[in-house]
Each structure stands twice: as structure tokens, then as C-alpha cells.
Specification:
Blueprint (H helix, E strand, L loop, with lengths): L1 H63 L3 E4 L2 E7 L5 E12 L4 E10 L2 E12 L2 E3 L3 E3 L3 E5 L6 E3 L3 E3 L3 E5 L1 E3 L3 E2 L35 E2 H6 L3 H7 L8 E2 L1 H13 L20 E3 L2 E3 L10 E5 L2 E4 L13 E6 L3 E4 L8 E6 L3 E5 L7 E9 L3 E5 L1 E9 L3 E4 L10 E4 L22 E4 L2 E2 L8 E4 L1
Parallel strand pairs: 7-10, 7-26, 8-11, 8-27, 9-12, 9-28, 10-13, 16-18, 17-19, 18-20, 19-21, 20-22, 21-23, 22-24, 23-25, 24-26, 25-27, 26-28
Antiparallel strand pairs: 1-29, 2-3, 3-4, 4-5, 5-30, 5-31, 6-29, 14-15
């Protein structure tokens, strides 16, 4: 009896001892695994830091070769070893401070989801900063017929593609083709692409053609989401970049919270300044106190759509068109700003001396091609996402001289940027750009 009790006691001691050993083993394994994971995380963070540093150095190398730079350029890249092993990815952006003539490269590296960010600052010199003068995403073709009908512009002329000059073309600040980093491609999506109303539910572009069709939405069981997002001419039965363009102006920008006037602009469907169908305007058609009009169609303008003659408050006015926008002899007064935005092509023609040209300023963005024919004088900032053509060939060569000078406002103050230009419009360009290399301007690195 005593022996049986003793055996039972020994079994209890053995089981308890095994349990303690198992707990100790589990604690050691857990601690070891945690330490391995922490070591791996620290290793990834260190690697991410060096990947970010590589992104910052790449951005610097690109900017250092440029005489004209647009701000804020962004590069996305992947760091790969000579053995084609991917170490990580990076995003680098350059942000200027014009008050101190410095710029900051902010680069973030990612390795296995772990992120590290570095900031490095440099000093720089410039001859001028302001909005893009003459820019294009596609080819730029400049044709000056003769001395009496030459093209003369401040520039610089900047293109993501090629620049071809024929005949008498004079650009004071030079021309820059195939620029790196390239001028941005504006987008009018205010949230996730194809989610026009930003409710988080949308159909996916399954064939990657840039369009979501009703058929694609039906295949995904997203009919309701498609109907909610298909805000531009529902009979088209597709959601695309033109839908985003329409929604951006008629809904997003019209909201007082999203425009610098902090008021309803009246460009929603049914609004006082929302027009459907092709429209033609001449001076005085639109009241002087109207900031912006929206036309779902083509627009033809003779000189201006507001009365520009005489005194009065300077006019800041924007015309948006979903189609083609054409203006003959664009004209305004000192201090005026006429802004023209078209989803389709842009066309302008005129003559020197007729009504004086744009004594004030004009800004143009077109999602298509832009053509400036014959002559005229403009204080102009123009950016065509497609091809930009300037051609002075005409029958009255004495009047077909084309002069393009810089706009006057300092757009580094966001309040001076005209309402209606896309958010990615290249509003900040440095001409005569040079990174300082003297000992007082050594780069400063910071890890955050």
C-alpha cells in the first residue's frame, strides 16, 4: 500500500517536472522567435533606410542635370542588386522653399512592408520661378514664317517629348525636350479611380483599358455602384477619365470647401453657370462677378466672354469645356486673369495690334492638343497634355508675329493660382536652376 502511494507520488513529480520543462522550453522558443522577428524587423528598417537614401540620391542626380525644373516632381523606383535581387522600393519627392532658396528631397524606402524616410536639403540658385510658360506632354512644333511673322517667347519651352523649331523662332530662356523628371500628367480623380462618389464601392476595370463599362460592372455584381458612379451622361454606360473631369468641376470644385472663393460656384447641373451643348461667347455675355462657367460641349469665344474694356475691378475668370475650346483674338486688361480649360483640344488665333492682346494674363490647360496660329501677344502659361503647335504662317505676315511673355503673378502664393486649373498643373517652375555646391551649402541629411 505504501509502495503504491510512493509510486503515484513519483508519477506526479515526473509529470510536474515535464510540465515545467515544457513551459521553460516554450518560453525560450517564444523569446527566441520574438528576438528573431525583432532582428528581422530591425534589419528591414535599416535596409529601408538605405533604399530611401538611394531614392534621394537618384532624385538629386536627376535634378542636378536640369536647367529648368518643375516642382514637386516625384520618382517611384525599385532598388535591385547586380544579381537581380529586389531589395526594396522607394518614392522620392522634391519640395522647394523659395523664401530660403533651398529644396528638400523626401524619400521613403519600403522593405517587406517596413518603412523608413529620409529628408535631405540643398541650396539652389535660379533666374526665375513661376508657372510653366509653354509646356506639352506630347511633341511641340514651333514654326515661325519670317522676321515679320516670327515666334518670340520668354519660355522656357518644356516638353516630355520632342521640340521641333522651324524658321524664325526665338526663345529667351531656351527649350528643353524629353525632360526628366517629366511634367506631370494631371488627373481629375479625387479619390479611388472609378469611385466617382468616393463611397468605397466601385466596379473594376477588368481589361485595363481605362474604362469601366456596364458589362464589366454586371460581371462583378456592381450594378448599384456603377449607377452611383456613372455621373456623366449615364447613357454612355461607361465611367472613364471624362467622367472624372465632369465630376471634378461640377461637384468637387463647386463645393465651397474646395475652392478659394469658399462659395457655391453655380456650375452643378441646373446651376446658373452650367451650360449644356455648344456655346459661343463675346464680350459682355457673362457678368463681371462670375468666377467660373462650365460648358458640357464645345466653346467658341470672340476676344473674351466678359466685358474687358474700361475700368473696374480686375477680372479673374475661368471657362471649362468638356469639348473643344476655341478663342479668336484673346483680349483682356492689365490685372485680369483669363483661364481656359478643355477636356478636348484648344485652338487660338489672332493678330498683333488688334485690341492689344492679353494685356493681363491667360492660363490654358488642355487634356488634348493645343494649336496657336497666326499672331498676337499673350502673357501666357499654357500646358497641353497632347501636342502643342505654334504656327505664324498666314497671309498678313506683318500682323502674324507671335509674342508669348511670362504671366505676372507669383504663383508660389496658392491664392494666385487660377481656379479651375488641375491640381497637378505645373505651377512652380525654376528657370536657370543650379544646385549650390559651396561649403556653406553642404547637404543636410535627416532620418525620420
Amino acid at each position: 500500500m505504501r509502495m503504491a502511494a510512493r509510486k503515484g507520488f513519483i508519477i506526479i513529480i515526473v509529470v510536474a517536472s515535464l510540465a515545467v520543462l515544457m513551459l521553460m522550453a516554450w518560453a525560450i522558443i517564444d523569446f527566441g522567435c520574438g528576438e528573431i522577428l525583432n532582428t528581422k524587423m530591425r534589419s528591414d528598417l535599416v535596409s529601408a533606410y538605405y533604399v530611401a537614401g538611394s531614392g534621394a540620391e537618384y532624385m538629386y542626380a536627376q535634378l542636378a542635370t536640369q536647367d529648368a525644373v518643375y516642382w514637386n516632381p516625384t520618382f517611384n523606383g525599385t532598388l535591385i542588386t547586380p544579381d537581380n535581387v529586389v531589395l526594396g522600393t522607394y518614392t522620392a519627392t522634391a519640395i522647394p522653399n523659395f523664401a530660403t532658396n533651398t529644396f528638400y528631397i523626401v524619400a521613403t524606402g519600403v522593405v517587406n512592408t517596413h518603412r523608413a524616410t529620409v529628408v535631405v536639403s540643398y541650396g539652389f540658385l535660379e533666374n526665375y520661378h513661376g508657372p510653366v510658360s509653354v509646356g506639352s506632354g506630347g511633341p511641340m512644333v514651333l514654326t515661325g514664317a519670317s522676321q515679320a511673322a516670327q515666334i518670340k517667347m520668354d519660355g522656357p519651352a518644356m516638353s516630355n517629348s520632342t521640340i521641333t523649331s522651324n524658321g524664325d523662332v526665338n526663345i529667351s530662356n531656351g527649350s528643353f525636350s524629353n525632360i526628366v523628371p517629366p511634367l506631370p500628367t494631371p488627373t481629375f480623380w479625387t479619390g479611388q479611380k472609378f469611385d466617382t462618389n468616393n463611397d468605397g464601392s466601385f466596379a473594376v476595370d477588368t481589361n485595363s483599358d481605362g474604362v469601366v463599362t456596364r458589362a464589366e460592372a454586371l460581371a462583378q455584381g456592381k450594378e448599384a455602384a456603377f449607377d452611383a458612379d456613372n455621373v456623366y451622361q449615364p447613357s454612355r454606360n461607361q465611367i472613364d477619365d471624362k467622367t472624372a473631369f465632369y465630376h471634378y468641376y461640377t461637384t468637387y470644385l463647386n463645393d465651397p470647401a474646395n475652392n478659394k472663393y469658399h462659395q457655391d460656384l453655380g456650375i452643378t447641373p441646373g446651376g446658373s453657370y452650367h451650360y449644356t451643348g455648344n456655346q459661343s461667347f463675346k464680350p459682355g455675355d457673362i457678368p463681371a462677378n462670375v468666377h467660373i462657367i462650365f460648358v458640357d460641349g464645345n466653346v467658341t469665344i470672340d476676344q473674351n466672354d466678359q466685358e474687358w474694356k474700361g475700368g473696374g475691378t480686375a477680372l479673374a475668370h475661368t471657362i471649362i469645356a468638356t469639348g473643344t475650346l476655341s478663342i479668336t483674338q484673346p483680349t483682356n486688361r492689365p490685372g485680369d486673369m483669363l483661364t481656359l480649360v478643355s477636356y478636348g483640344d484648344f485652338y487660338s488665333t489672332g493678330q498683333m495690334g488688334n485690341q492689344g492682346g492679353t494685356i493681363g494674363d491667360m492660363a490654358v490647360y488642355t487634356n488634348g492638343n493645343a494649336t496657336l496660329e497666326h499672331g498676337g501677344k499673350m502673357h501666357l502659361s499654357i500646358y497641353a497634355l497632347g501636342t502643342l503647335t505654334i504656327d505664324t504662317i498666314g497671309t498678313e505676315q506683318g500682323k502674324d508675329h507671335r509674342m508669348l511673355t511670362l504671366v505676372t503673378p507669383d504663383w508660389t502664393d496658392p491664392n494666385n493660382i487660377p481656379v479651375g486649373l488641375p491640381l497637378q498643373y505645373p505651377a512652380y517652375i525654376s528657370y536657370g536652376f543650379l544646385i549650390k555646391s559651396d561649403s556653406s551649402q553642404k547637404p543636410r541629411w535627416q532620418r525620420i
